[in-house]
Amino acid sequence: MNNVARIVKIGACTGCNACAVCEHIHFEKNAYGVPAPVVDQSCTGCGKCIEQCLYDPDREN
User: Fold this and answer.
1) How far is CA 39 from CA 26, 49, 50, 59, 60, in A?
2) What's the distance, CA 8 to chain centroid?
3) Cβ neighbours of residue 36 under 8 Å, at least 6 residues apart?
4) What is the DSSP letter of 47?
5) pTM of the model
6) DSSP 8-state assignment for residue 22
7) What whole-number distance in Å separates Cα of residue 1 and Cα of residue 29?
């Protein structure tokens, strides 16, 4: 999974909106009422959203 859904799944997403550079991402409130990214079915896995994610544990500085 080469998109921001990986970051959401591990609980590292803060809802900062940096990943919104991709047209396949929109934000919805999660169970806690905090906006979180949702990746649509048209995602190609290009990784553009992950490149912007500040909280990706695999990110190289």
Assistant:
1) 7, 10, 12, 19, 23
2) 6
3) 8, 13, 15, 27, 28, 29, 30
4) -
5) 0.82
6) S
7) 22
